[in-house]
Design brief:
The protein is built from 15 helices and 20 strands. By secondary structure, it is an alpha+beta fold. It folds into 3 domains: 224 residues, FAD/NAD(P)-binding domain, CATH 3.50.50.60; 105 residues, D-Amino Acid Oxidase, Chain A, domain 2 (2-Layer Sandwich), CATH 3.30.9.90; 57 residues. The strands form 4 sheets. Strands 3, 4, 5, 6, 12, 13, 14, 15 and 16 form a 9-stranded mixed beta sheet that branches. It has a 6-stranded mixed beta sheet with strand order 7-2-1-11-18-17, with helices on one face. Helix 1 runs parallel beside helix 3 and helix 13 crosses helix 14. The longest helix is centred in the last third of the chain and has 21 residues. 50% of the residues are buried.
């Protein structure tokens, strides 16, 4: 009888590597297949890994030469109009404690490092010769027998396993192949992420953004950043660079006939942003399709006979306005998927009845609970009132409140009324405030 792997993982991103680490620590026999030249080679995300799950997988990672850029102890939300910006700024030494609350990462570096940590655990196990991280391999098809997934095909080769974890990313062709998602993902469920990495001398970066040691800043932008298109901007500090970019709703981008790189150039030339990046050297430009963070985009079932779906292949991402949570969702879903495989191995049953435990584990975790709890917040954040009118109102108020002239000064409440009257209406602001209070 042909030997089978306990599990085949498709995709060497954070979801796939997290699953691999759990399986490696349990000394399971698995095969991870990544189509990039190395894990992280095709990922363009320059973002933040939130939460502390990394410490579960790689204990004391901060004591080694880990693959992250900086830890986050400074957060800023900026609302912009064409010439001004109004920011909410929070910095705390409480976030200096390990394990860190958030890490800025460059995926090519981080994923490659993470893969090396998985490999070291494989090498230390008794199944070291039977588990493998294989790169530069495209999985073309899931192999099925009697409606059950039993392996994968790559070129002329077929590999069999008791279970397959699909961690293939948002372009989830294999997930669609087995009918867990429609053949075409609706345009309002995806967005376009565009990003540049801009290098600075490390000392200059520290002075400009008030960084000490490996501390870091994350800055989200709402308003003129997206030039009237649904979405927003970001800037994250790395060790000797910043990642700056936009996430723009694909449907709105198409309907308004805007080009992402034109919006990015406008964003970078905004007076506030231009001051932040002046003198930097652009190292790379990249673009990528991402999920919008809408819970209705998550497939109804993330399992079938012999297969589980994890990470952004399952559209597991949340953007409720205070942060973009994608990598932590990928990591936790990978952990839960691998745990389900290990439980199924004990019972020697990999049918959908057994693998449904993965869906239940997701529902019980913070992932699905937050996706459902903050669904209305996602709707508020993506409303035109939020990404256009609120920034205009606040910036107009800021110009009046912080401007000092040689004439009588109105009360702050009168300034706010005037700002609202100029850009929106009290009724619009009241409705938005009520919805935001209920959703957040």
């Amino acid at each position: 009888m042909e030997e089978r792997f306990d599990c085949i993982i498709v995709g060497g991103g954070i979801a796939g590597l997290s699953a691999a680490m759990v399986l490696a620590r349990a000394d399971a026999r698995f095969l991870l297949l990544e189509r990039g030249e190395f894990c992280g080679a095709k990922n363009v995300s320059g973002g933040v890994l939130w939460g502390t799950d990394l410490a579960r997988l790689v204990p004391d990672y901060w004591e080694a030469e880990a693959g992250f850029e900086r830890f986050v102890n400074h957060r800023r939300l900026t609302l912009m109009d064409e010439t001004s910006a109004f920011s909410v700024d929070f910095k705390s030494a409480d976030f200096d404690e390990t394990p860190y609350m958030g890490l800025t990462v460059l995926r090519a570096r981080f994923d490659e490092w993470f893969a090396s940590q998985v490999q070291s655990v494989i090498d230390a196990g008794s199944n070291a010769e039977e588990s493998l991280l294989a790169t530069d391999i495209l999985v073309e098809e899931l192999v099925q027998e009697d409606g059950r997934v039993v392996g994968i095909r790559t070129g002329d080769e077929v590999f069999h396993s008791n279970c397959v974890i699909l961690a293939e990313g948002v372009n989830n062709l294999l997930t669609r192949q087995i009918g867990l998602e429609p053949a075409h993902v609706p345009a309002d469920h995806v967005a376009v992420g565009v990003k540049e990495v801009i290098r600075f001398p490390e000392s200059s970066l520290a002075e400009r953004f008030q960084l000490r040691g490996l501390s870091g800043l994350t800055n989200e932008f709402v308003g003129y950043a997206s030039r009237g298109v649904e979405g927003g901007g970001f800037l994250y500090t790395n060790r000797d660079s910043v990642s700056i970019g936009l996430v723009l709703a694909m449907k709105d981008l198409r309907e308004k006939r805007q080009k992402p790189y034109d919006i990015l150039n406008d964003f970078k030339s905004h007076p506030v942003v231009a001051d932040m990046i002046e003198g930097g050297e652009v190292l790379e430009y990249s673009a990528h399709v991402v999920s919008t963070g809408d819970v209705t985009a998550v497939p109804e079932r993330l399992y079938a006979d012999g297969v589980l779906v994890a990470g952004e292949a399952a559209h597991l991402l949340l953007n409720s306005g205070k942060a973009i949570q994608g990598m932590d969702y990928a990591m936790r879903s990978g952990i839960l998927a691998a745990g389900t495989v290990l439980s199924a191995r004990e019972s020697e049953s990999f049918d959908s009845g057994t693998l449904a435990a993965y869906q239940q584990a997701l529902d019980d975790s913070y992932l699905m609970r937050d996706l459902r709890s903050f669904h209305s917040a996602v709707e508020v954040f993506h409303s035109e009132t939020m990404y256009k009118k609120v920034p205009d109102v606040l910036c107009e108020f800021g110009r009046q409140f912080f401007g000092i002239g040689n004439e009588p000064t109105p009360k702050a409440r009168d300034m706010m009324k005037a700002a609202v009257k100029q850009h929106a209406s009290m009724w619009e602001m009241a409705k938005l405030g009520y919805k935001a209070a209920r959703s957040l």
